[in-house]
Design goal:
Elements: H1 2-7, H2 19-26, E1 30-34, E2 39-41, E3 49-53, E4 57-63, E5 69-75, H3 83-86, E6 95-100, E7 102-108, H4 109-118, H5 120-146, H6 149-164, H7 173-180, H8 184-196, H9 208-214, H10 230-239
Antiparallel strand pairs: 1-7, 2-6, 3-7, 4-5, 4-6
Helix pairs in contact: 5-10, 6-8, 6-9, 7-8
Length: 241
């Protein structure tokens, strides 16, 4: 397991654990490669594993009908997939698919539950992450209901950029439309609008500051650092706990 011990610092949820708790957890994990498009979980199937991404990211989506779905969350190296298991539930209504290829630490669900019982530090950290995750879901719900596609698109691209750990990435308008739950023409119009606002090379290289100005954020800003993306703001709130 020495290679796992060297790379775990890439997962920010686990890197804050005390060394003894961290080593005990790592000894029970296996490192796996995540392939783009790989389905990690289908709705209401039994959850068998939790995943702590090291690189790459996982998309969680809800099916709306036979032909449409809506993305509800993105999970990268800041977190984990498998929250229901931490709450004592072994199913989930979401579809989990790999949207960015990379690697992750995978842990058997039963072993994860045992670790939670044995490590108060792990339990506390997971509880904080659950709070942040729920806060993001609440923000996404408000965003979907009240904000225009342009602002939603800017917010989604910021989230993607945070998890890709890169300022440049490639993505199709078809995929963006599927993630936002809108028609492709809606993404085309929103992208054109952002381009007119000096978002040069919009689909290939995104100017972070411009996206931050354009994204929707229903939360009060007065007590949080200025210029933060949704994920950076959530990390700031998490540190205040």
């Amino acid at each position: 397991m020495p290679s796992i011990h060297r790379t775990i610092v890439a997962n920010r949820l686990l890197e804050v654990l005390p060394k003894s708790d961290l080593c005990q957890l790592l000894d029970r994990c296996e490192r796996v490669e995540l392939a783009f498009g790989e389905i990690l979980h289908s709705p209401m199937e039994r959850l068998k594993h939790v995943y702590f991404p090291i690189s790459g990211f996982i998309s969680l989506s809800m099916r709306l009908n036979a032909s449409a779905s809506l993305e509800v969350a993105l999970i990268g190296s800041e977190g984990m997939f498998g929250i229901p298991l931490a709450l004592g539930v072994d199913t989930s209504p979401v579809r989990a698919a790999v949207m960015g290829a990379g690697s992750a630490l995978r842990l058997d669900g039963e072993l994860f539950w045992r670790q939670l019982e044995q490590s108060q530090a792990l339990r506390s950290e997971i509880d904080r992450y659950v709070f942040v995750h729920l806060s993001q879901l609440e923000q996404a719900t408000a965003c979907t209901r009240f904000h225009v596609v342009e602002a939603r698109l800017a917010r989604w691209l910021l989230m993607l950029q945070d998890r890709a750990h890169a300022s440049t990435f490639h993505i199709t308008q078809e995929l963006l439309a599927a993630m936002l739950g809108v028609r492709r023409v809606g993404v085309t119009k929103a992208a054109s609008s952002l381009q007119r606002r000096d978002h040069e090379r919009f689909i290939l290289a995104h100017r972070r500051r411009a996206l931050v100005r354009a994204h929707c954020d229903p939360r009060p800003r007065s007590r949080e650092p200025a210029g933060k993306s949704p994920e950076a703001a959530c990390r700031w709130r998490r540190r205040q706990l």
